[in-house]
Design a protein that fits this description.
By secondary structure, the chain is an alpha/beta fold. It has helices at residues 16-26, 57-66, 81-93, 106-112, 125-145, 162-173, 184-187, 193-202, 219-231, 240-251; strands at residues 30-33, 39-42, 100-104, 150-155, 178-182, 235-238, 259-262, 282-291, 296-301, 320-321, 327-328. The strands form 4 sheets. It has a 4-stranded mixed sheet. Helix 4 (106-112) crosses helix 5 and helix 5 (125-145) packs parallel to helix 6. The model has no long low-confidence stretch (mean pLDDT 92).
Length: 331
């Protein structure tokens, strides 16, 4: 914003031409293929904890036109990537998914049940059951908040035990959702045939997407809806700074855009340590800023940082090519 409180646009900086030149080719999705030759359009890598968590509209529409069934990813959980894909992207494009695949791991559920990361390879049915409410809330969000059929895909790790897998399946069946193993890491496409059959069955069922908030809702009302319906919070608190920014957004015509919440991916709340399915909390919005080109308002909550976390040792240090042309260190 200028010192006079007016929003500064690219045209005010006379930068729109240079920005268009940079984006001219970058806007085009990249056609790649899996190790088995399945085509995939890859476009963008926005993290769903700090951004919208899904690829471009162009990439999704291209995939839908080139195949009978298109599968697209929405990052992290149903409280982040799925919420933003459905409430922002689907709202703007008219795209309506026929079914949802919720990916889960026994390790993540045990972590939500209180197991330390160093001990996640050990069987712990008690902790697994304690962490199940986290997964079941994601399932409930998809089925009852958004009205879409779903299947839970268990991304199987070599350390998972049969007892752990059976427990996940039995708990999910109580909500009437099917569970299928995903073993593509070990078996390639063959390891997901049962999952694919279930997806094909689900997409034939009639469904109608519901949004968490209405079109044109005020930013504050949209945030309240997402927090209470999807996160299961008791409400939203705005810091004094966020209240001032909300007034500015409304004054400048941005007060009715969809909301993109920047929130920790480790919890339904804005507290990364509140694992499982927390209740009795408020979401604190500390900052609001508009992404005018993307056409949504970003709400920063809790202590989340908008700079993605990077490893202490870059993965690039382990990648090499031997004398025979074999690449190592990718996995």
């Amino acid at each position: 914003y200028s010192f006079a409180g007016e929003p500064v646009r690219a045209r005010d900086l006379k930068a729109q031409g240079a920005m268009a030149a940079l984006l001219k080719d970058a806007l085009k999705p990249n056609l790649v293929q899996t190790l088995e030759g399945t085509p995939a359009f890859v476009h963008g890598g926005p993290f769903a904890n700090i951004a919208h968590g899904c690829n471009s509209i162009m990439a999704t529409r291209m995939a839908m036109r080139f195949g009978d069934v298109a599968i697209t990813e929405a990052g992290f959980g149903a409280d982040l990537g799925a919420e933003k894909f459905l409430d922002i992207k689907c709202r703007m494009t008219g795209v309506r998914p026929s079914a949802v695949v919720i990916v889960a791991t026994a390790r993540a559920l045990k972590y939500n049940g209180g197991v330390a990361k160093a001990d996640l390879n050990e069987e712990n049915l008690e902790a697994l059951k304690a962490g199940m409410p986290n997964l079941l809330r994601h399932v409930d969000n998809i089925q009852n908040v958004y009205g879409l059929p779903c299947v839970v895909a268990i991304n199987r790790f070599p350390t998972d035990t049969e007892a752990e897998l059976a427990l996940i399946e039995s708990e999910c069946q109580k909500l009437g959702v099917s569970v299928k193993l995903s073993e593509v890491w070990a078996k390639g496409g063959e390891g997901a045939l049962d999952l694919a059959d279930e997806v094909m069955r689900l997409i034939e069922q009639p469904s109608e997407l519901k949004f968490a908030y209405e079109d044109g809702a005020d930013v504050a009302d949209a945030l309240e809806a997402v927090a209470t319906k999807v996160y299961r919070a008791d409400g939203v608190d705005f810091t004094p700074a966020a209240k001032r920014q909300l007034a500015e957004l409304r004054e400048n015509g941005f007060g009715n855009l969809p909301v993109c919440v920047a929130k920790t991916q480790y919890s339904f709340s804005d507290n990364a340590k509140a694992l499982g399915a927390p209740e009795g909390f408020h979401i604190t919005v500390r900052e609001l800023k508009v992404s005018a080109g993307a056409h949504f308002v970003v709400a920063l909550t809790g202590s989340v940082l908008t700079m993605p976390g990077l490893p202490k040792v870059p993965a690039a240090e382990n990648i090499d090519v031997d004398n025979d042309g074999n690449i190592t260190g990718l996995f």
